[in-house]
Amino acid sequence: MSYKLGEVILSRETIARRVREMAEEIANDNGRDKGLVVVGILTGAAFFLTDLVREMPEDMDVRVDFMSVASYGDSTTSSGVVRIFHDLKSSIEGKNVLVVEDIVDSGLTLSHLIDLLNGRNPASLKVCVLLDKYERRKTEVKVDYCGFRIPDKFVVGYGLDCAGMWRHLKDIKYVIEE
Ligand code: PRP
Asked: In which domain, by residue range, is 76 found?
């Protein structure tokens, strides 16, 4: 099968506007003087995260950390496992944590990750995703901040890839499979 770039689903302007709104909402909810550890899940979320935190107020105590994980198991497996390729640099115990993902699809990665991070006793743990492919959910995940709900179509750009390609696109586009 070969892949071609299709139409834009979310333009860079639409994304930027929504990212600003989300950053404002997160800053208002969290409070500026309470610290917030923003945890990006590599690789895709790095693009969204860096734009998101730069829209947060300068006087807000924001820290950034990253994890690289892969999830195994499915909704019929009793306990899911997250394999950690790269862990956080700092402890999140007693901290307010915001997990940032580019996309939630089946929900397995996030639900396993939330269990794992909650086991480290943060003061609070919230989830922020840019895209929600809600039709594909296999397990329930509480998403506190969602950029856009999108249909179950293959999309790339702004961090999302097709076999490693097209993450660098400024707009999010459909992929045409031929
Ligand atoms: C994507 C995304 C989530 C996961 C969502 O990561 O960033 O981590 O898939 O899917 P799920 O809800 O079905 O678990 P991917 O494995 O493509 O890694 P990448 O960010 O490095 O591209």
From this structure: 3-177
When divided into structural domains, the chain yields a total of 1
Residue 139 CA: distances (Å) to CA of 74, 134, 135, 136, 155:
9, 10, 11, 9, 21
Q: Is the peptide bond before 50 cis (omega within 30 degrees of 0)?
A: no
- Those residues of the chain that have pLDDT short of 70 are 72-80
DSSP bridge pairs for 98: 38, 126
Does the CB atom of residue 103 touch ligand 1 within 6 A? Answer: yes
Catalytic annotation, residues = 105
**pLDDT score for 75:** 46
The CATH code of the domain that includes 28 is 3.40.50.2020
Cα of 33 to ligand 1 centre, how many Å? 32
Answer yes or no: is the C-beta of 111 below 6 A from any ligand 1 atom: no
Q: Is 101 in the pocket of ligand 1 (CB under 6 A)?
A: yes
Atom of ligand 1 nearest to the CA of 103: 2
- pLDDT of res. 73: 54
- 51 is written with which tokens? 């734009």
